[in-house]
Amino acid sequence: MKALLKGLLYLVVLLALVFVVGGFLLPDKTHVERSIAIDRPPGEVHAMLDSYKRFNEWSPWYELEPTAKYVYSGPEAGVGASLAWEGVKVGKGSQRIAESVPQQKVVNALDFDGTQAVGTFDLKAEGDGTRVTWSLDSAHGNNLVSRWFGLVLDKMVGKDYDKGLAKLKRVLEQQPR
């Protein structure tokens, strides 16, 4: 019995050591990025992304929990426009437009219940349409749990970004020109 407890103690110490040392060897930042071509000019795409007024029409998370509480604040569009949400499935968080460059970019400051990140929509004219690149950048610092979580962030968020971009494309391309 004593040998079993001693073995378990060694195992726990070894796992803790792997967690700590391994965590510090992992990257302290994570980048997720997805892209899609939309058959609309950059100005139209920018107008949609520069406001949260129509966010739930294309958001990949709205259909996950349409009964979540959404609160809009600040200006209707542009820098300072904000959206906060709270729900059982979508959790609690907020986003605020931190930078907006017409026809080029919209940058969102994200807060997922205390965890900060930056979401960016880069817009590039492509033929008669727009190449939209949606990215998420998260800095983990010395937070070991966050660093380990960063290993699966692309897999978790990437599929939502693909879905959201496809919905954004559908919504924009169904609008009259």
Task: Give a summary of the structure in a few sentences.
Helix content is 38%, strand content 36%.
Helicity, as a percent range: 25-40%
Roughly how many Å apart are the termini?
76 Å
Spatial order of the strands forming the largest sheet:
1-7-6-5-4-3-2
Low-pLDDT parts are: none
Structural class: alpha+beta
Shape: elongated
Sheet with the most strands, sense and barrel status: 7 strands, antiparallel
Features:
single chain, 177 residues, alpha+beta, 4 helices
Structure report:
With 177 residues, this protein is α+β, with helices and mostly antiparallel strands. Helices cover 38% and strands 36% of the residues. The chain has 4 helices and 7 strands. Strands 1-7-6-5-4-3-2 form a 7-stranded antiparallel beta sheet, with helices on one face. Strand 6 (115-126) and strand 7 form a beta hairpin. Helix 1 (2-25) packs across helix 4 (144-174). The mean pLDDT is 89.
Task: Give a topology summary.
Elements: H1 2-25, E1 29-38, H2 42-49, H3 55-58, E2 69-73, E3 82-87, E4 91-101, E5 105-112, E6 115-126, E7 129-139, H4 144-174
Antiparallel strand pairs: 1-7, 2-3, 3-4, 4-5, 5-6, 6-7
